[in-house]
Amino acid sequence: MAEYGQTARYVAPPELVAARQFTVPYAVNLTLTSTGGLFTPNDLYKAKDTNGDLVFKVKGVSFSSRRLLLDAAGTPLLTMKPKAFSNRGTRRVFRGESTSPEDLLFSVRKSKIFQRKDNFDVVLATNTDETAPCDFKIIARRKKCSICIGETDEIIAQMHRKTAFFARDELEITVNPNEDFAFIVSLIVILEEIMASRRRANTAATTSAGGGAAFSGGATFSGGATF
Predict the structure, then answer these.
(1) Using CA of residue 87, residue 11, residue 150, residue 104, what is the dihedral sign?
(2) 129, 116 Cβ separation under 8 angstroms
(3) What is the model's pTM?
(4) What is the pLDDT of residues 143-154, one digit of tens each?
């Protein structure tokens, strides 16, 4: 267990978060795009390297909120799943296709229950001390985000959103040397899922408000019908 003030580097080597082959001694640049469509609703994201080669893909599980991160060959690496009844919107990530507590790797949650900025804490399963700082932090803004170690300003990865006219957003991800880029991609996917869920909620609220107005108008018309 880490002592207070220690960062995730001392809790667990970064290559152990997902798999050793996703930790290399040089910076990694990836482009993440959403791929879900009418005919492939469960194909959600693809991550490619600078040569355009597929590195990861993310699939949904039918009739489930689970998301699977797979390597280019289709081998499941991580399972991402919202935690039920969480007041901080917690997402939990497990090894492979498992959702067993024994295979929990880390959790992502809002830094505070009520917050104005999109900051999220990442806590490794090995960190069971509730008084200790988080192991990583996601600091998200509208078109970029940074992933830092613990409560420090030490950035290990960054994402920039590149929006193309009449095209899907492209998320350009840069991962520092010796950091687990499968882990980083899973964090960006979770952030995208949180933002997408928020947009859906806002759209539903707007639609509901519009429907209420229309219903009110219909009631007035009904009153006129009694004439």
Answers:
(1) negative
(2) no
(3) 0.81
(4) 899 999 988 889
